[in-house]
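debug: dumping io for the single-chain case to check the tokenizer round-trip. Nothing else runs in this session.
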Amino acid sequence: MRAVETYWKEAALGTGVAVFIALGIWGVDVTPVAVLAGLVILLQMMFTGRLAGSRKLETLTLDGRNPAEPIVTFDDIGGQETAKRELLEALEFINNQEKCLRLGIRPLKGILLVGPPGTGKTLLAKAAASFTDSAFVAASGSSFVEMYAGVGAQRIRKVFSTGRQVAREQGKNGAIVFIDEIEVIGGKRGRHSSHLEYDQTLNQLLVEMDGINTTGVRVLVVGATNRADLLDPALVRPGRFDRVVRVDLPDKEGRLHILRIHARNKPLAANVDLEKIAGETFGFSGAHLESLLNEAAINALRSSSSQIRNQDIRDALEKVMLGEKLDRKPLEEERRRIAYHETGHALVSECIRAGSVSSLTVIPRGQALGYMRQAPEGDKYLYSKQQLLDQIAIALGGAIMEEMFFGSRSTGSKGDFDQAVEAAYQIIFGGMSALGIVSKQHVLPEDVNGEVHAIISGQEKRVREFLKCHQAVAEALADELLKEEKLSGTRVRELLRAG
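debug: decoded output
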């Protein structure tokens, strides 16, 4: 079909050029014709996105029957059991169309995947295509945005027609059109006062989802976003996006499942405990966990090891969390200050929760000149007032340690103070402070600032008293850290017991 279209286009172009040359030879003034043809070509390039500075619509199509193309199934996706269950339930309506028709169930037109970046929304869309035996066409929301009015709407029509065409070519009854970053084109209308390009693009998407231009091939739109609050109400109403599936960060069991999937083709040492790693990676997405094992494999390659060891994984964990090691060399006085700062964090952390320190280092990584990594207590989603106060105390430990041994604080405590203030805000707006239950909109800023100051001052006093009682141990631990540059949590506890 495409070959025939190309043939006729080339034939028409060749005929036009021949007529143009013949008219010139016969003495006919072809200037008006040339100008008109140039304008037509320019307009055509503008509306198809081929003008310099504009972009073509970039789409990805996958043929599940092609053995060279990896087929993604729901078994390949870990840590999203709830999302998979909701999605499979929705897709059953597509696979059992006859039963749905008997019950009077209308076909689904759209499924919206909502969740943080890296949680597997694209993989879920690809798995949905293989599960329903549908053609898969994908594009990002930014691919539809252009400076020329009407281009976005045309590209919406193009991606839907591509989905139907691919489905017919593959002999399939349906197609899945996956639009990533759908908030780019699906944002609330009326926000862009300069021109209506965004609104026209969204209007065309609504028309396509309503099925006005249906040609026999069933099209299911799967959108993905991490900003569902920006979407236009007309887009997310029932009848367009009939299902909204939450794709959240995985819990411990989910992280363990993801790690096992990504460890299938990696030779792990016998003492590597994936369950322990899953417990230490609270807040990691699937993309983070994949990167963790990949970086660990790179570390093993650098050290010429045939297996991935615990040390490789620990180094990879710090790299994923903080960034690569830096060649930055602080002055000796700065190194001492950093060592005492991190020692302060570690001492307070071990006092509050024994065994909580996982590692301690003065090696610069990313934006951090030093770092104290805590072993997570578990997947926690709620915090009591005392737990938040403990977080504030640990955050203040570094600055107070500097003050005790160097007579002043430094700018290295800025991030710690931000964490402490944020925890204080959680106490206040959680109704756990002396202000009682308050509303962000109605409480006076000076009252909030006064309560934040009172909370943090109380924890400063608590930390200062504790560090004074353990001054000798603090000096020994800081000196050991300066000498070794990095200490494990086990070594930290050994020094604390010896002191």
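debug: round-trip ok. Residues 445-469 form the longest helix (25 residues).
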